[in-house]
Amino acid sequence: MPPTSPNSPAPLYLALLFPFLPSDRCSRSTAPPEPPFALVGRSGSAQRLAAVCPRARALGLLPGLPLADARAQEPRLAVVAHDPVADAALLRALARLCEDATPTVAIERPDALLLEIGGSSHLFGGPQALADRLRQRMEAHGMHLREALGATPDAALAFARYPSADGMIGHLPVAALSLGEDAERGLRRAGLALVRDVARQPRAAIAARFGMGAALALDRLDGSAPRPLSPRREHAPLRFEERLAEPVATADGVRAIMARLIERACRRLARRGLGGRRFDMSLFRTDGQTHGLAMESGRPTRDPAAIARLFAERIEALADPLDPGFGYDRILLSIGRTDALAAHQPALEAAGDRVDDRDGDRVGDRDGDRRNDALAALIDRLSIRFGPARLLRLLPAQSHVPERAERRVEAQSAERRSADALSWPQPLNADPPARPIFLFDPPEPVEVLAEVPDGPPFRFRWRSIQHRVACAEGPERIAPEWWRLKDGALHGGRTRDYWRVEDMEGRRFWLFRHGLCDEPQGAPRAGGMRPPGWFLHGLFA
Amino acid sequence: MNGAQAPRFAELVAASAFSFLEGASQPSDMIAAALAHGLDGLGLADRNSVAGVVRAHVALRRARERAGADIPFRFLPGARLVFADGAPPIVAYAETRAGWGRLTRLLTTGNRRAEKGQCRLALEDLLALHEELLLIALPSETLPCEHGAALAMLRDAAPGRLWLAATMQRSGTDRRRLAERAALASRLGLGLLATNDCLFATPGDRPLQDVLRCIRLKTSVAAAGRQLAANAERHIRPAAEMARLFRDQPHALAASLDILERAAFRLDELRHEYPDEPVPEGWTAQAWLEHLSWEAARRRCPDGVPERLKAKLDEELGLIGRMGYANYFLTVHDIVAFAQGRGILCQGRGSAANSAVCFLLGITSVDPMRHDLLFSRFISEERAEPPDIDVDFEHERREEVMQYIYARYGRERAGIAAAHIHYRPRSAVREAGKALGLSDDMTARIAGTVWGSHSRILEDERVTDAGMTLENPEVARLKGVADRLLGLPRHLSQHVGGYVLTKGRLDEIVPIHNAAMPDRTFIEWDKDDIGALGLMKVDILALGMLSCIARAFELLRQNGLGDYGLDSIPWEDAGVYDMLCRGDSIGVFQVESRAQINMLPRLRPREFYDLAIQVAIVRPGPIEGEMVHPYLRRRQGIERVEFPSPAPPHDPDELKTLLGRTCGVPLFQEQAMKLAIVAAAFTPGEANRLRRSMATFRHAGGMHDFEKKLVEGMVARGYARDFAIRCYRQIEGFGSYGFPESHAIAFARLVYISSWLKCRHPAAFACAILNSQPMGFYAPAQLVRDAQEHGVTVRPADVSASPWDNSLEPESSGSGNLALRLGFRQIGGFRRAWADAIVAARPEGAFSGLEDIARRARLPPRALRLLADADAFGSLALPRRTAHWEARRTPPGELPLFAAAQAIELADEPAADLPPMQAAQEMAADYQALRLSLKAHPLHFLRETLRRDGISSAADVAQAPSGRRMRMAGVVLVRQRPGKGNAMFITLEDETGITNILLWARDFERQRRQVTAARLMVAEGVVQKSREGIIHLMTRRVEDRSFLLASLSDEGARAAGRGHPRAMRIIPQSRDFR
Q1: Short-list B260, B191, B189, CA closest to B10
Q2: Does the distance separating the beta carbons of A208 and B909 come in below 8 Å?
Q3: A275, part of any domain
Q4: B865 to chain A: nearest residue by CA?
């Protein structure tokens, strides 16, 4: 125990235990599962309950139970995936909520916080009042809570975990020593169920059987051995601020300060191996008005010149230019989103001793990188100018149905082609392109004269103009995606037969027959058997 | 036929579901589709496998039988060779029997060098074994250069025997591709073959194929997209449509007919010859078999072979000679003789095992002369079916027999039959759900409600049970897909022990695979396929009870209580039957289940044949045919024994001989079959098909034609319709578990032997069965308790007395009785080596203490702790707690423990101040270490609490009059939900005995959690006593009081509050049967 001077208050610890942390987290979400529910994790080949909600607990479903057994007992049990990372994040967030009570908040994973409140509880009307206040706060956040005070960190934590001990160290079960399952079992088998039973034994006998750790744990519980807390530490947020004694009112002055902030930010980002994805510049005017500029980048970046240029673009694009009025006295840059960005030295590599030139691909990649850099810069600029939702690119999608074979994403989106090498379909050998570059949405109905049952079209009328087919190739038969049928049937929908045709004038079209002659056509309510229809779906260049 | 103009075509590139996770139709469906389209033939070529060809062969045979005429259609068995070295896939068919042998050897080569389920082939393998094979190449559309090179190589190696396949699957550029292919063919000088490279029978099978591919790719249909086929074109097409598609290359259709004609090999040509090894030089197999049989007969009957036996032997040997089965019997005899020479107990059963020949050769110990079996016919001549003998061996020593077979006949001549594993409801739902992209949660919920695993479709109730509605499209789709997956083959596995042995090379009949178990190889065909081709197999099975009996005999020998074998125990001992009539049969073979125990006092077996009936009657066949109660009523004399009889023109006594020994009620499978022949005028061939479709109706279907024929046939002859319908239902019941008389008699012998051991030598029997665990229905705790109730003294495991196994010791009283000493094997987690070390250290003198044992037997701390927890230091006056404290003394991890400390004594230490252990805690600790306690029953300590709640004991229930409402509490021993699952049987045990609970399904569903989770259950219901004195508590309400058990142990008492389930595990989990 650290020596304390007579004046300084005796250390006092408050433990906040969240017995249902994972389930409370789910209940707080926007779509909470219906109780009773459990969080399930995989251990080995079996799925086991990792945590349960209070209802499930009351039904006797305990963590550790195999999911199959739990279901046999309670078929209505809803199941959510166990997410320890999210739980840890929630615990950190809860720790932040306590920081006004004391500077020393330690996280005791997985489900508890430990606060040193000896020095601060008087500010809140005493330890109990502080505990009540925190309880109310936690409950307001939808958390179940068991709290306990103790003279040592371990005691506070143990009292929270084992309320049956009633605040008496001796009455705690041996599990409170946290010695691990094997040692716990050993102590209990020896008939030593409570801490006081263990404490009665000679320390040497305990140490000989359960190691020095057991003896130490006993001492820590009653405070005869110190136990340091490791208070929560978080990276400070990426915020950079300039307070100006003399307000700046000129555009150049503002730009210079912004450039300084960006420089500082980029240095910090480089130290952390990060690149910014979202930058917010707040400009505070002396008269209390605030201007905000937000900028997003498609790729993580920490290039000061590029960021400054993007902000400049942003300012230019403003309908209502920045009006410094009597000047800004404070400018704040915060980086809202970051991604990892490793350091690299393009110039040095390019000029380097070309050791890995044997690997031609990598050189190509590097060239490609450079091109991509330029393209990315252009995409960023255009997106900032017109808004990210206006600049799109197409990605291939997993479907044979032409209108579903691509999807649009924001050009800036980090989404790449998935790693499973899904690429655009390539025509075989030296074939002409299989798909047109222009698709009608929806396909346009056409009147067609064609060979039955599934031959090529001879003539078709599109937008009142008659086209005579000079040559046709096909059909490319695409069956409907049965798994999308609304009625859950395995069959239904209409098959399409696509034909590539060229008319007498050399124009190329993509036509399809909708429905086969021998397939049931649509639902009965739509008039039973309908003859196949024809549509024009696209134009080749 | 439509005349010369009609286009003709044979589809020669077709895969079935035996191309696992690719083909979507059964081989029989492919044949049916090809026949329906009027094709000239079909070639089935699955990926590196011929596993499905027999199914197709049989389907065609059946179609011919149905049509009653020869259908001009050819089926070609073949395989699609998929190479690991980048060569194009090649479909191969055999021109001759020798060609087939090469194909199967080629596949064997690929299988044997890969892991189970894989086949690694290279083009050179084919180049080495291509002769007399016709080859169809399927190079990819882009024709990579290695494909071109491979084609040229094959063409040069197999001139005139290689074709190039072309497809027209409406991919948009079909004609362009066809022209390219034709150009390539003429450049290489190959024939062009039209095919549709079929993956399924009809376009409607596309969804299933998509799902299978998703299962293979481990993705969902929505995510798989272009990895799935764009359309449903890869089905079997009519010739006219093929002709239309291939109008640019008409000769490509004609090529299919060329190949059809040239690939002349038919599966019927496969001839099975049993090995010659057992036949000595200079003898024919038949002569040697006759010699052995007569020798044995003369040995058995030194005073002259009785006429009856002579006649029987003559008849049997004559039949064996005519059918050419002598080698088969000699091979089985050889295997059995090997086992007997090694002292491995074994017993044969099965139709052929019913014979005097098998009895004389020692294959079975059922004497057909003594038991006067119902059917003298052990092989049916008209059925031309191979004989079938199953031999059970001690389960722990079967591997010796199996390795003997491999060693004697060689890997290329001996193989285990395959088991074709099919999708069952649970796996179908799970995999379909994954492929449809549903959450694990949802599919697990539906799969979880499926009881039993043999239904052909997923019942709607299963879905609604899971709280889901079929109106939800996702759920409806899941059910639709799962229904179609059901019954589809999923993978090959090995049969439990059916060996196929051949004189020539087995791998020239069928490919051989590596099994998952080391040192095992199996063939691709399952038992139905083997039967359909007339190949013979002998089943080498493992039976736990034989191990147990062998152990018991050994114990009797060691203790001077007699030298017995399966044949030499005293038969028809009245005391044994008295015991069984009381329902006292825990541990006895086959009749120890709850249903059997309930049946015993009603059936009251008094002679050996009664045991055969007892074994056979509690089975789905008699139960579903509602034959049980009529039989019991007649046997008890409540109802007159009369024989169902037909209307006048027919012989009114036609069933008398058939049903004479079973009081006019059909109970055995043969009786049901013979009924069909006699009373419904089935031909033996039809009856045979009926029996076969019963055994395989899971994946063959077609039972309903039989239902009509059987019921109407019997009604037409004047039998009561009700009786006819029951007969049919019985046959249907046999389908899921056929039980012929010959099996019943073989099992009945083991019932008698185990009952005799239990009755006359309870200590040896209990000891043997404990040493044979796990087996049977009951946990060691019940077996020990049962032994105690039969007067056996049971002593605890102790460092000074126990060996590894449980053992027998003389009783100290000098009564000459034997006491059962628990062995170290009862201690959970204890190792045999530790036990042996302790035994080896004993002769040096008595152990002085824990440290002494540790040093002398060099035990690690874990062993010491386990011994302490099992309270095994009783002889050293070291109580459990003190021993545990001692054993903990050297902290784990400091190696080498006592070995290093051999010289150094641990320092003295003041005696620990440990609280004494309560009796309840001792009991709980016993259960934790040994899964049983000799000190007390857990309920003993809870009796006060329970009595305060007005809860009665099992003894109270047994005394109460029928109709009394009572509450009873007990540890759950067994939960069973038999048959259709409308009732649940639960056995509860307390310190006074056992109570049987019956719970109807609706009450079960209401309290599912309590019923399935409880280890300590309180049941409330009405006592029901039958005339025979069987007591049930007809329960409506149960409570789960497992927490009371937790309060008994010192661990549980504290842990109950925050309870990890582990803390509750004081009582081992019940054994649950579905």
Answers
A1: B260
A2: yes
A3: yes
A4: A186
Is-contact B390 B403, C-beta < 8 A? no
**Same domain membership, residue A491 and residue A512:** yes
Amino acid at B882: T
- Whole-number Å distance between alpha carbons of A511 and A539: 9
> Which range (A329-338, A347-356, A488-497, B186-195) has the least confidence?
A347-356
Facing B225 at nearest CB: one of A398, A485, A490: A398
Among A376, A399, A426, give the residue marking a domain's end. Answer: A426
Q: Are residues A410 and A442 in the same domain?
A: no
| Mutate: best of B235, B485, B914, B1038, partner A, most A CBs <10 A | B914
Q: Cβ A208–B449 below 8 Å, yes or no? A: no
Test mutation, A483, A518, A537, A540, chain B, max B CBs within 10 A: A483
Same domain, A403 and A378: yes
Give the nearest partner residue to B477 out of A201, A202, A490, using CB atoms. A490
Instruction: Determine, for residues B881 and A485 on separate chains, whether the beta-carbon distance falls below 8 Å.
Output: no
Q: Is residue B672 a contact partner of residue B731, using CB atoms and an 8 Å limit?
A: yes
Residues A360, A336, single domain; the answer is no
Mean pLDDT of A59-87: 80
Return d(Cα A304, Cα B387) in angstroms, integer: 88
Q: How far apart are CA B848 and CA B854, in angstroms?
A: 11
What is the overall mean pLDDT for chain B? Answer: 84
Count of domains observed in chain A: 4
Chain A CB contacts of B829 under 8 Å are none
Count of residues making up chain B: 1074
Size of interface A-B (CB pairs under 8 A): 192
Q: How far apart are CA B691 and CA B676, in angstroms?
A: 10
Give the range of the structural domain holding residue A463, as residue numbers without chain letter. Answer: 438-539
User: Distances from the Cα of B531 to the Cαs of B55, B383, B526, in angstroms?
Assistant: 11, 11, 9
Domain boundary among A426, A446, A475: A426
Contact flag A63-B226 (C-beta cutoff 8 Å): no
Q: Please indicate, yes or no, whether residues A328 and A258 belong to a single structural domain of this protein.
A: yes
CB of A469 closer than 8 Å to CB of A458: yes
Range among B234-243, B298-307, B385-394, B412-421 rated most confident: B234-243
B555, B764 contact by CB (below 8 A)? yes
Any idea what the CATH number is for the domain that residue A321 is in? Answer: 3.30.1490.100
Q: Which of A189, A398, A512 to mutate to test the interface with B (most CBs of B within 10 A)?
A: A189
Asked if A335 and A308 sit in the same domain, the reply is yes
| Strands B74-81 vs B41-47: parallel, antiparallel or unpaired | parallel
Query: Rounded to a whole number, what is the distance in angstroms from the first to the last CA of chain A?
Result: 83
- DSSP assignment of B326-394: HHHHHHHHHHHHHHHHTT--EEEESGGGGSHHHHHTTS----HHHHT-S---SS-TTTTPPP-EEEEEE
Are B525 and B565 in contact, with CB atoms under 8 Å apart? Answer: no
Compare all CA atoms of chain A with the CA of B141 and give the residue at the minimum distance.
A428
* A523-537, B267-281, B1029-1043: least confident range: A523-537
Torsion angle of C-alpha atoms B749, B751, B753, B757, degrees rounded to 10:
180
Same domain for A422 and A446, yes or no, is no
| Stated pTM of the model | 0.73
Please tell me whether residues A457 and A509 are part of one structural domain. yes
Residue A517 within a domain: yes
**Tens of pLDDT along B156-183?**
999 999 999 999 999 989 999 999 999 9
The nearest alpha carbon in chain B to A172 belongs to B1054
Among B221, B226, B916, the residue with its CB nearest the CB of A483 is B221
A467 within a domain of the structure (yes/no): yes
Q: Name every residue whose Cβ is closer than 8 Å to that of residue B410 and which is 6 or more positions away in sequence.
A: none
B contacts of A197 (beta carbons < 8 Å): 915
Residue A59 lies in a domain: no
